[in-house]
Amino acid sequence: MVTKELLIHIGDSFDAMSRRVVDAWHRAERGELTPGNAERHVGFETFDAFARVMTPRRLELLRHVHQRPARSIRSLAIALGRDYRRVHEDVEALVLGGLLDRDETGLHADYDAVRIETRIAL
Q1: Given Cys at both, which of 80, 94, 109, 111 links 6, Cβ 3.0 to 4.6 Å?
Q2: What mean pLDDT comes out for the span 100-113?
Q3: What is the pLDDT of residues 12-34, one digit of tens each?
Q4: Which residues are within 8 A (CB) of 82 and not within 5 positions of it... i.e. 6 or more apart?
Q5: How far is 24 from 16, CA to CA, in rounded Å?
């Protein structure tokens, strides 16, 4: 079984992100990247930006959705025993941050692991 990994980049420069895109483009052209081994990258400008999106409650929500995809925010709120409005806010933040997927079938976290690469300027 292939483990799907989400790669989160924190503090990368625009040049680093551009190099990653160009590298992926070239690997796809050579046939090295396919839907079966596609990479998923998400970037945050700063650690603070990442921390505003990934809170402990949102991590709990992601873990739940990974194990049991939800058809709706309402069903997710009921399953988590949380207020609908707060779950809705969390879902919106995670979708906008690229950490949660929403489509016509519901909410998904279609990766098994998260790897975080952080660059913090001092």
Answers
A1: 111
A2: 93
A3: 888 888 898 899 889 888 988 87
A4: 57
A5: 12
